Amino acid sequence: MDAVTTTLLSFTGDPDTEWCSVSAELIALSDEFEAAPVSDAAEVERTFTAFVDRMTLIAFVAPPEIVDDVAISVDAFLQLRELLVAAKFDLGAVDVSSIQSQQAVIAPASNRISTYNSEVCQLDPDAPRATSAPDDPTAPTPDAVREAAIELLTDGGYSVAEAECITDGLQAGTPRATVLTDCGVSSDTNDG
Questions:
Q1: Residues 148-163 pLDDT 10s
Q2: SS3 15
Q3: Which of 109, 132, 135, 188 is the most buried (most CB within 10 A)?
Q4: Rounded to an integer, what distance in angstroms lies between the CA atom of residue 35 and that of residue 29?
Q5: What is the pLDDT of residue 7?
């Protein structure tokens, strides 16, 4: 049996960042998905799509400490989206073994994101909360997050057209590698 090592994480930062704001909304969307009746494929599709769409956009505002972890998590959820689409959002018909086989990478990434959100954003994913985040007047709108993602990409050296293409492709749930190819961007160009 392999030895397991544990590294204690500690993050510091500003809780008043765009990442922290949209992370709170993402937690609420996750709760909504988890509360969806398993037998209601339309509700599973609606809630999961809302969650994944938001997650792909906030990846662009991820703090440097967890940017790689967020990319791993987004890729895992995009893989799950493909499986759910193939199963017509019937949770009972989804074979998630391909994702489960990646848990050695996904679980630590998820833990680092949760730790960051807890320590910096002061978000407790287990705390009771209202699921009305979209009605919160201080919550960023999808357009604001999209614009922030485009700005982040252009600041990183992408053209506006490339940044828009990448953002729209990821928001649509297209896998990252496909988005980069479709947008005419090399996967090692501007990768930080």
A1: 667 667 766 778 787 7
A2: coil
A3: 109
A4: 10
A5: 52
C-alpha to C-alpha distance for 51 and 71, rounded to whole angstroms? 15
Instruction: List all residues 6 or more positions away from 96 whose beta carbon is below 8 Å from its beta carbon.
Output: 80, 83
Through-space distance between the first and last CA atoms of the chain, rounded to whole angstroms = 35
Structure tokens at 142: 């999808």
Contact 131, 25 (CB under 8 A): no
Does the predicted model carry a pTM greater than 0.70? Answer: no
Distance, CA of 73 to chain centre: 6
C-alpha to C-alpha distance for 124 and 24, rounded to whole angstroms: 9
Quote the DSSP letter at residue 36: S
Six token digits for residue 56: 């792909």
